[in-house]
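Example record used in the benchmark description.
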Amino acid sequence: MEIVKYSEEWKDEWDEFVKNSNNGTMFHMQKFFDYHTPGKFSFNHLMFVDKGKIKAVLPGTLKQSLFESPVGASYGSIVTPEVIKFSEALELVEVLLEYAKANGINEIMLTPAPLIYQKYQNENLDFALLWKGFKYDLHYISSAIKLDKNRDIIDRFAPTVRRNVRKTFRDFKLRVEVNERYDEFYPILLDNKSRHNVKPTHSYDDLLKLKELMPDKLKLFMVYYDDKPIGGSLMFYPNKQVALCFYNMLYYDYAEFKPIHRVMYEVVKDSTENGYEFVDIGVSQDTSADNPMTPSMSLIEFKEKFDAKTTMRNTFYIKLS
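Model output (structure tokens):
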């Protein structure tokens, strides 16, 4: 087995491998990276190849002597086949370390998707990384709802959320619809982010480009009151296991109508009906704190009201010299 730098002629084979892998997501696909403006990132994607066939892939970038994965995406690290033995995972790590030493790479930082994104939960690769000298660098606390088609959705929520959702059913001025009105959603997104002095991860054009490139991977739930857009949830569908709430936003002037409570109900209902195993509501870190691992207690407690439990997003790191 050898590591080969990705080039365009491998694009279809790369994406097909990710699609059929155990732990790959939309954030590992070349089609996803295509939404970025050319030149915004310096990609240095790697492929583990044996006898002309891809055995694993590793998207990322090389900054001086640091290889980092992901870049321009939420999740990265090594994408493995649907079935992988420990000996095979160990070989992948050994080949990566040999490649790094031969190519002047002194540091490697890998952030895989949480365990819930795997078809078959398998920590062979994690242990192989740790055994070969990687250490945990960061842990982010993320929240996910385990879906169950045999359980009533509203009954799973906290009492206050249950009351608020049922109240929205009686308020005929409020409705939720799935559409592609990104022009209505994006001003709400900007308004929300400005309250925290940050900008959205994606520009308006980015979202339109992503929807064009990966139409089956995005779905927009909009909340209206008296036909005015007051909130929404932009869902990403990284793979067949997990539906990801990438943006949950509202106009705070309409917070009394509980648009997020209602749209979360609709999202969980839709994801359950479409066979997903989890709804990932994302990380809950206090971005104003000096320590990036600092949990945002209010955000975590809010997510727990929807029966969300903790799943960690871990970063592995090794310094070779």
